[in-house]
Backbone:
């Protein structure tokens, strides 16, 4: 009988302290997430120093909760995995120092994981999905259209030239007074608005480009609000939310489908925090069905930052024999596909 591979994973790249225990890259024995959202909310975004300090305060507690829920101890682990980039350097370092200390003391292999690779791997948890496929990664810091050629083998087809999608959601939300994080709030409010009430621009860039640009639509929303203010017209927040969301979703869906068709791939997987967006899920599903492409996305809890996805990505590294040394450092701008 094949031996089970159990990995404890730590994720501290931004504002969630999360630890998970994952068996065989699929069974999530625990996935404890301690969110700092309420701490950062009053500043309208993540404050890096506060994030690092809070990770330090939380990490030991989050580890014990995750181990307790999984009914396991460090001794039962085959490896300790940790996000080492991209992300906020101070935040990453907390998880990394903790993972190294545990791996060293318990004599377990250390596996550093790329955060975006984690987001993509979240799709393996609840689906029978195998590469090759197209993954549209839409998070607070990243917008990548990726050809997943094999486990851990990626080709970036396109990315944003300015704002990440989640960033645009958060900025637009702030401009209409919805607070941080804005994505889920826009998603909710948009349900009460009309998608075609305001004609916000859809930026497709050059014909053959898989790159994205969201700063134009974001500025268009801000201009629209300013114009309304100058004319002393009341703004309809729900219509702004719905029209903005629909402009952004249209471009993401069109480019993803175009890439899948061009590469002859019949599987598309959404990943990252914005993959939780209800309109993006619906529109991508409709477009995929029309083209006979299978669509995958993780449950909401595995879309936003969590350690389970890091444990899943680490499993595929483990079976390839990847191990990191104690000199592994945090790399805030680590590129997808770059191996240290
Ligand atoms: O992947 P994630 O948790 O963190 C990063 O790696 O960046 O993504 C966070 C982003 C935030 O910008 C948040 O506003 C956005 O995901 N988000 C959403 C939704 N839920 C989270 N955006 C649109 N609709 C949602 N339902
Ligand atoms: Zn993330």
Residues:
């Amino acid at each position: 009988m094949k031996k089970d591979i159990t990995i404890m994973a730590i994720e501290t790249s931004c504002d969630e302290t999360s630890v998970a225990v994952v068996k065989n890259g699929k069974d999530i024995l625990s996935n404890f997430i301690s969110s700092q959202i309420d701490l950062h909310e009053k500043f309208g975004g993540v404050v890096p120093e506060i994030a690092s300090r809070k990770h330090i305060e939380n990490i030991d507690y989050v580890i014990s909760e995750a181990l307790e829920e999984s009914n396991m101890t460090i001794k039962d682990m085959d490896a300790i995995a940790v996000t080492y980039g991209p992300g906020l350097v101070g935040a990453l370092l907390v998880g990394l120092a903790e993972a190294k200390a545990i791996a060293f003391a318990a004599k377990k292999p250390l596996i550093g994981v790329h955060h975006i690779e984690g987001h993509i791997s979240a799709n393996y948890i609840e689906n029978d999905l195998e590469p090759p496929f197209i993954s549209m990664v839409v998070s607070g810091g990243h917008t990548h259209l990726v050809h997943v050629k094999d486990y851990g083998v990626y080709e970036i087809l396109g990315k944003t030239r300015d704002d990440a999608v989640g960033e645009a959601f958060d900025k637009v939300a702030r401009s209409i007074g919805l607070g941080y994080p804005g994505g889920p709030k826009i998603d909710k409010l948009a349900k009460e608005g009309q998608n075609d009430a305001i004609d916000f621009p859809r930026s497709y860039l050059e014909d053959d480009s898989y790159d994205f640009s969201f700063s134009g639509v974001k500025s268009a929303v801000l201009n629209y609000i300013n114009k309304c203010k100058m004319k002393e017209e009341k703004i309809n927040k729900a219509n702004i939310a719905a029209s903005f969301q629909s402009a952004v979703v249209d471009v993401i869906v069109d480019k993803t489908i175009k890439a899948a068709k061009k590469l002859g791939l019949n599987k598309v997987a959404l990943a990252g925090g914005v993959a939780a967006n209800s309109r993006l899920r619906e529109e991508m599903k409709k477009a995929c069905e029309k083209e006979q492409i299978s669509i995958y996305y993780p449950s909401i809890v595995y879309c936003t930052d969590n350690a389970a996805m890091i444990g899943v990505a680490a499993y595929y590294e483990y079976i390839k024999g990847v191990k990191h040394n104690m000199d592994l450092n945090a790399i805030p701008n680590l590129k997808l596909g770059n191996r240290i």
